[in-house]
């Protein structure tokens, strides 16, 4: 008997359809999707409503949950990383790449 593993993924809403299709191709047929809000490296943004400025630091995302047994967990993670990986960032001034290039170092 194979172990049952629950996988939680939080990502941008526009990536949901592409991830669903990729999961279906490897045999992951059941997922649960929830709308969530969170903050992290993106730090939100500032909006003006009726002349008043507001900091919006919770960004809308989707949470995808799936439980796998027959499909290997490593394969699910490989597919998720392939679909959800975003472009690399490079800080020209310092040459830093990836996460280091987008962290606020003020």
Quick synopsis:
The protein has three helices and five strands. The chain has 106 residues and is an alpha+beta fold. The model has no long low-confidence stretch (mean pLDDT 85).
Plain-language structure description:
By secondary structure, this protein is an alpha+beta fold. It contains 3 helices and 5 strands, in the order βαββββαα. It has helices at 16-25, 73-84, 99-102; strands at 5-11, 32-38, 45-49, 52-56, 59-68. The strands form 2 sheets. A 3-stranded antiparallel β-sheet has the order 1-5-2, covered by helices on one side. Strands 3-4 form a two-stranded antiparallel ribbon. Helix 1 packs antiparallel against helix 2 (73-84). The chain starts with a strand and ends with a helix. The model has no long low-confidence stretch (mean pLDDT 85).
Low-confidence spans: none
Q: What's the overall geometry? A: extended
CA gyration radius, whole angstroms: 18 Å
Question: How big a fraction of the residues is strand?
Answer: 25-35%
Query: Main sheet: which strands, in order across?
Result: 1-5-2
**Helices and strands, in N-to-C order?**
EHEEEEHH
Task: Give the % helix.
Answer: 10-25%
Mind summarizing the main beta sheet?
A: 3 strands, antiparallel
> How confident is the prediction overall: mean pLDDT?
85
Distance between the termini: 52 Å
Oligomer: single chain
Structural class: alpha+beta
Instruction: Count up the helices.
Output: 3
Number of strands: 5
